[in-house]
Amino acid sequence: MSRVMADSLRNGYLPLLGKAEVERLVGRYCSLSRIRTEIGAPGSGPGWLGWLVAADPDGDVLGAAAGGVAEAGAGEVYCLCVTADRRREGIGSALLEAMSEQQRDAGARRQLISLHSPRDPLLPFLNRHGFRPSEEKFGGMRYARPL
Predict the structure, then answer these.
(1) What pairs with residue 143 in β-bridges?
(2) Who contacts 59 (Cβ-Cβ below 8 Å, separation ≥6)?
(3) Are 64 and 54 in contact (CB under 8 A)?
(4) β-strands 140-146, 110-115: how paired?
(5) Which pairing describes strands 110-115 and 132-137: parallel, antiparallel, or unpaired?
(6) Domain 43-146, CATH class in plain words
């Protein structure tokens, strides 16, 4: 998972954010110790519903997603990534749907995601899945969709 996440950040965000910022994000979000701690805490509260992983028959990670319901009625997508050579095969859509089901079960009626830039490489995927601009937050954009 760490590798897939780090590769997604490096491949998708380097032109938008620059090397220093991308490496800061990789260090913060892709560290093995952080991921191990999060894996050990699935369902530890509505704000964190845990990791979902897509793997091939050999156990190689193809994609990962994480989310929760941080505020009443609102699901949050914290991470959604697919290895570059397996994109456009439905892996990201399946992960998003599984996360959406978790969040609906936890009472979410809408789903939000934060993006780093209005040119975020995830935006076409999100648009296809019904996400629309919601608000600006922390220098980035928030997108939302009904669940």
Answers:
(1) 113, 133
(2) none
(3) yes
(4) antiparallel
(5) unpaired
(6) alpha beta
Pairwise CA distance, residues 29 & 125, whole Å:
22
* Residue in the block written with tokens 């859509």: 93
- Other residues' Cβ atoms within 10 Å of the Cβ of residue 18: 11
Q: Which helix (H) or strand (E) holds 40?
A: none
Look up the pTM and report it. Answer: 0.89
Structure tokens at 34: 């952080």
Q: Which residues pair with 41 in a beta bridge?
A: none
Q: Whose CA is closest to 129, among 141, 113, 118, 116?
A: 113
pLDDT, tens digit (0-9, with 9 covering 90-100), for 31-74: 998 888 888 776 566 688 989 999 999 999 999 999 999 889 99
How far is the C-alpha of 103 from the C-alpha of 52, rounded, in Å? 12
Residue type, 119: R
What are the backbone dihedrals phi and psi of residue 40, each rounded to the nearest 5 degrees, phi first? -75, 0
CA-CA distance, 34 to 2, in Å (whole number)?
10
Q: Are strands 110-115 and 74-82 parallel, antiparallel or unpaired?
A: parallel
